[in-house]
Structure formats: structure tokens, C-alpha cells
Design a protein that fits this description.
By secondary structure, the protein is α/β, with parallel strands linked by helices. It has 16 helices and 21 strands. The protein is globular and about 70 Å long.
Amino acid sequence: MKTLDPEAIRGVVEEVLARLGPGKPAAPAAPAAPAAPSAPSAPSAPSVAAAGGGGSGGRHGVFGCPDRAAEAAHEAFLRLKKLGVDGRRKVVDIVKSLCVANSEGWGKYELDETRIGRLDHKIEKLQIIRHVPGVEWLRPDALSGDAGITLEEYAPFGVIGAILPVTHSIPTLSGNVVNMVAAGNAVLFNPHPGGARSAALAVRAYNEAIEREVGIDNLVCTVAEPTLESFGQLCRNPLVPLLAVTGGPGVVKAAMQSGKRAICAGPGNPVVVVDETANLAKAAKHVVQGAAYDNNLLCVGEKAVFVLAAVFDRFMDELGQAGAVRLDARALERLAAAAFAPAKGEGAHPVVNRELIGKDPGVLARHAGTGIPAGTQLLFAETGADHAFVQAEQMMPMLPVVRVPDFETAVREARRAEHGFRHSAILHSMNVEHMTFMGREMDTTIFIKNGPCVAGLGLGGEGYLSYSIATTTGEGVTTPKTFTRIRRCVMVENLRIV
């Protein structure tokens, strides 16, 4: 197997720490959360000592040593195989019910630890796990003809090594568990250090419930104190044949150089175009809904809007009517000076101040030197197409709006700001030709017409939910099928009974 370059690993860790959030604060108090009907209540966050952080062991999925965690997860995978699809279904039901029942306590715990986002949306992101698909997605495919029959089924890989972002620690973990265990796998997480205690809290609760109801411990594992070394161990471990990664170009590159199959959700900078045929009031409402969600931490969240000049002023008024607060040019530049450091190197994007990622609009307004009404969800301002707020994936509740002369220019500038990540794009229009043109030009994994960003994840639009959107490697919005191997079984000249 190809050895992972230590320098690549080091670059990954540095990028993750710099890009996804603030450093890890002291552990928050453990939540007093209700239990799911079939599972025990959430325990307090495990200490490093309790998890075996000072040695190699662990219990209920929380380990100090990634290699020991991989061994435990592999043993759990073998036991899950014996229980068949019904065993997977029971685990999925346990995870979903426990996640919903503890959503308030876990949401507060994660917010206290990470210090980014909004409590109401932290809670909601845990409650909507019911929309993540399970074993029902794994129907076999069959072929029958004169030469016999062929059956193709979806088989598990074994232990999946997964990297978690700080932006959605427990929601991403929980959604991945549903998808990956439904596919028959065990999971070993290397969380972002800023959300590691939240991940351990959920992992421990899930394993306690799974062990009691199904008789398997360590089906879901996590590294208690994730480090550069733990990431490298996970990538090198022979018991981990598949990696599932969420992060920027560095972490994706390292995973893809590991010599293993990698499913990678890379960076994004979702853009919006509003043309002259749009329902402007509805478009503004949807933009505010999506861009303000969890203080714009969603990877699909609206990050920049390009509006045709003919309707620009009316759209800006509608944003104000929808509850957003407009910054003038001086306030915008004061905020930009606090939010970004200069780009490092030719062609590089501005460097986001991670201390402002996911912060409330009131915090941003203070940096802008202005006051805003209580309860404001989103700030917005007119900018040029080259402004840092347009070109960088800033993950703050501040929306840049760019005036453009025509639709072709809007799409061209939107495509430039999206940087070829092929993540997400949104169009507000009643013109079908515009929809077709932009869809082809943007070539994004998710393309939404006349709705908020969350509609692309089955929330207000048709579809299903996943917190892992594999843009870089092309799998798209992940499902249980994403984490399987296709196996073919062929019977020649028999069992064709027609």
C-alpha cells in the first residue's frame, strides 16, 4: 500500500484547524438530555482517561489509539454481518431515535464546545436525521434472460474511516452512521479537534444503546483526542479500506493519496443568480432563510448573490423586508478588514478570520461599527464581483450582493466565484431557458431553482438528506449505496423460469 506522505498529513491538520473553526475550548458541561424510548440517556462526555487516551484501549467506541479503535470496529463489523439486514435496521432506528431525543442537550453541548452557529439550528440539524436514508435504499438489481440470471447486490467495505468537520460535528457523525451502518459497515471517526468532545458524547451514547439492544459494542468509534498522528494512523491502518472525508483541498488531496478508496466532500462557495423574471419577494425570503441558517455554516448555504441590474434595487429592498439588515459601504469595509487577511500568493483567495466563522450577526455588526435590531438573522451589502466576501467561502451571516448588467454576465461571474468546486448553485427565475443555460454552465453537484439551499437536501424540496456531499470524487449527496461494493452473482442456463 502506498504510504501517506507525512507532510501531506501535516498540511491537512493545519488546514483543517485554520479553515473550519476556532481552537478547542474547555469542555462544556454535559447536557441533561432525555433518552430515546429504546435507549439510555446521553452520558457525560468521556474523559481522555476514561476513553483510554493515555494508553491504547477504549470502551463504548471512544478510544485513545486509532489502531485499537480500528480493531474494535472491525470486530463489531464481523458481528454485524451475522445479524443481517434486520440488525442494521435496528441500529439505524436506535441512532435516529436517540439523536432526536437528545437534540436539545446535544445541540447546546456542541454549541458550547465549538462556539459557532445558532442553537435553534444546532437542535434542528439533529432532529432532521429522520430524513437520512437507511437500509431501504439497498434493493438488489436482477437481470434475467435466455442465458440464465444475474443478481447484483450492495456489499459493505468493512470499517470506514471518516473525517468530521467542526461545523456540524454530531449531525455529520450521526448522518454518516445511518448511511454507513445501513450499508453494513462499522465506522471510525477522526473528528475535528474543536468538536471532538461532542463526537465522543454521541458515539458513547450510540454504542451503549446498540450494545444493549443488539449486543454489539464499538460499531461506531471515535478518536478521543484527534491529532496529526491519529489521522495518519487511520489512513494507514489495513483494517480501514475506505475513507470518507469532509474538508478543503488539502485534506481531500491527502485522502486521495493514501492508496485507499476515498469519498471526498471538498470545499464549496455556493452562488445565487436572480434574474428579471424572478418572484423577488420569494427569492429574498429564500436567500435569507438559507444564508442565515446556522450563521451560514452549511456547505450548501448561499454565499454570494448576483442580481440583474433591472431588478437589483427592488431585490435589495426585499432582502430588508425579509429581515436582513443592509450595511453601507463604510461599514462593509470595516467588517471586511476584520473578516479577512490578505491572500497569500498569486491566485490565492483571501484568508478568512476563523474567529468570525459562524458568529452571530450582532458580532459582525460590532466589527462593522454599526448597530442592528435584536433578532437580526443576516447582514447584506452591495459589493463588486472581486470582493473578498464574494470570492472566499466565508461562512458568516453576511451576504454580498453583486449588480450585473445581464444574465450571461451573472452566470459568468457566479461561475468564477464558485471556483470550479462543482458544489452548489441556485437560480431564482421563471425563464426555463435561463435554468437550462445556468445548469449547464455551472456543472454543480446540486442545482436549485426557486428555493433555498436546503431544498437541495430534501428539506423543502423533493429528495433525501445527507451531511456528506461528495463533490470532489463525484458521488454526490451520499446514501447507503455510496458506501458499498457492488457484487455480482451469476447462474448460467438455470433459474430462468419464464
